[in-house]
Amino acid sequence: KAGVTQTPRYLIKTRGQQVTLSCSPISGHRSVSWYQQTPGQGLQFLFEYFSETQRNKGNFPGRFSGRQFSNSRSEMNVSTLELGDSALYLCASSLIDSLNTEAFFGQGTRLTVV
Amino acid sequence: GENVEQHPSTLSVQEGDSAVIKCTYSDSASNYFPWYKQELGKRPQLIIDIRSNVGEKKDQRIAVTLNKTAKHFSLHITETQPEDSAVYFCAAPGGGADGLTFGKGTHLIIQP
Q1: pLDDT at B95 over 70
Q2: Burial (0-12, 13-18, 19+ Cβ within 10 Å), B108
Q3: 3 state SS of B110
Q4: Hey, is the C-beta of A36 within 8 angstroms of any chain B C-beta?
Q5: Are the C-beta atoms of residues A43 and A35 closer than 8 Å to each other?
Q6: For B31-73, how does the pLDDT look when each residue is reduced to its tens digit (9 = 90+)?
Q7: Does B42 contact A at CB distance below 8 Å?
Q8: Does the beta-carbon distance from A47 to B99 stay under 8 Å?
Q9: Which residue of A47, A84, A110, B62 is surrounded by the most CB atoms within 10 Å?
């Protein structure tokens, strides 16, 4: 069974631009969560989607948004990029939800904002 | 929302010794407590989890204990080996719509 796939693996963007990251969950998994990982803040929850609906949302500004498609694939978008958005963005898929069952993480997308 | 505190931030032990990492949480309604291991440059992977209806769970050299009254849970690794070197994260489900809240991580270093 294929694991969680994130694309692209690396991105370099300029301040003010926007970016879209993609996540393909494990086949059969309906929940996709997104996290921002930085050395100072660790793993911070962004949002979780289940059956195309946002179920949970972390404490991030509205510049961070996401969506989930009918095949459970998910995208997250960051608009008006700031230097502080440089981080590793991880997505994780779960069979039903990450609050009660194992979350399987992708390799992440390393975003650098210059 | 949920607040998860994890200690220590760095732990260095001699190979063969035991390592203990502790976490506290704030939301008494939390009922699922996973531990993830992240090796350098790799994705986090679940190593063990515990639910609130049990006090301890073991899987070979790894064990997790949970004290719901005190709201803390701990990861125990016995007979540590070089491949145990990694960053370990504890987590607890956030209250309301907070999702899974992670501790800041513990960098475990196994000294030969």
Answers
A1: no
A2: buried
A3: strand
A4: no
A5: yes
A6: 899 999 999 999 999 999 999 888 999 999 999 999 999 999 9
A7: yes
A8: yes
A9: A47
